[in-house]
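Lab notebook, design round three. We kept the backbone fixed and only want residue identities now. Task for the bench partner: fill in a sequence for the structure below.
Input structure tokens:
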């Protein structure tokens, strides 16, 4: 499975049923668990390095893209995730030191502090694996490190539509959480950033009980998305467990 004209966007059926991991006997439930595991690891790495959430999100996208083309059965997810963070930090102009990245990764995985006298040995042990992993990730991604994120789109919409003081206190954190949750899934491989931003916006509005019905059409116009597309986006059910947008909008 390789990106075509639309690069990294595929149907959920393609991702769920035709991944290299599936061909190697890893079922969807297990692959979903593995994806969440490396996302949790990347979140911890980002926290330790005080990286911007865009850097963490880009690393997650790199990982999802990699395992769209490569099998979990044949690759160490921790090495690949560390490499993806290393590359993402470069792309987002927040570079991290390779030695520190390796040491920090080991500390997170083993939940203990590595003594100063052991750090050089740990670095020497893993630097070759990380170097080879970087080559594999770059070749697998076809050196395509361009990632569009939904954050700016969401911010623009909030500035335009969320005007009253009461809503401003609740809406941003809810919308932000929905967007962040999306990166723990393969939604970034299924939907364009503006679709994910739109979904997060509507879900946040519903969460704080805004008048979705009255404003839905103008919101959709801003995101350049139709109500039908919004309701058909399976990522709504992926996060909330059910698709509820269109019935509310059309009530």
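Proposed sequence:
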């Amino acid at each position: 499975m390789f990106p075509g004209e639309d690069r990294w966007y595929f149907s959920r059926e393609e991702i769920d049923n035709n991944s290299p991991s599936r061909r190697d006997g890893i079922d969807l439930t297990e692959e979903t668990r593995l994806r969440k595991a490396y996302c949790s690891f990347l979140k911890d790495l980002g926290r330790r390095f005080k990286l911007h959430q865009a850097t963490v999100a880009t690393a997650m996208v790199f990982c999802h893209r990699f395992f769209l083309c490569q099998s979990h059965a044949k690759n160490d997810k921790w090495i690949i995730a560390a490499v993806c963070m290393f590359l993402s930090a470069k792309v987002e102009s927040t570079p991290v030191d390779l030695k520190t990245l390796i040491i920090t990764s080991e500390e997170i995985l083993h939940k203990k502090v590595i003594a100063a006298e052991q750090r050089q040995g740990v670095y020497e042990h893993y630097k070759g694996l990380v170097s080879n992993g970087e080559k594999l990730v770059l070749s697998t991604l076809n050196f395509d490190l361009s990632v569009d994120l939904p954050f700016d789109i969401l911010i623009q919409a909030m500035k335009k539509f969320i005007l009253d003081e009461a809503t401003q206190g609740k809406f941003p954190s809810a919308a932000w959480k929905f967007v962040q949750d999306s990166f723990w899934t393969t939604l970034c491989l299924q939907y364009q950033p503006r679709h994910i931003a739109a979904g997060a916006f509507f879900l946040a509005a519903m969460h704080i009980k805004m008048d979705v019905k009255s404003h839905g059409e103008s919101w959709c116009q801003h995101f350049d998305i139709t109500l039908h597309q919004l309701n058909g986006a399976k990522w709504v059910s992926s996060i909330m467990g059910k698709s509820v947008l269109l019935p509310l909008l059309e009530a």
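Keep this in mind before ordering anything: The CA atoms of residues 61 and 188 lie 7 Å apart.
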